[in-house]
Amino acid sequence: MPDEAPKSAFELAMERLRRRDAEEGVEERAVSDEQKAEIAEARRVHAARTAEAEILFKSKLMTTFEPEELAKIEDQHRRDLARIQSDLDRKLKQIRQ
Q: What pTM did the predictor assign?
């Protein structure tokens, strides 16, 4: 019996994912320091844009009292957040290539 400690569910899942990636021919690439800096900058911009959208959303909510108008503002806010997230995802994909 080996002296290794039991593996966590996370470690077991990661091993399965690595095996599946190897079977499918997906290669693992290390991220360079430059890419790490670009990723960190993209995430900072994302956080700032999200915070700005939240502030604008809350200020609009404070000045609107009609239910139909509130629904429109909430829909627009969800679209804005989805767009900001997709911009981040696209940027990260571009950096990692």
A: 0.72
Taking the domains of the chain in order of start, what are their residue ranges? 31-96
Distances in whole angstroms, Cα of residue 77 to Cα of each of 19, 36, 53, 62, 86: 40, 30, 7, 14, 14
Instruction: State pLDDT tens for residues 7-53.
Output: 899 999 999 999 998 898 877 788 899 999 999 999 999 999 999 99
What kind and span of H or E run contains 65?
A: none
* Listed residue (66, 89, 61) closest to 77, CA to CA: 61
Sign of the dihedral through C-alpha 17, 18, 19, 22: positive
Residue with tokens 């960190």: 40
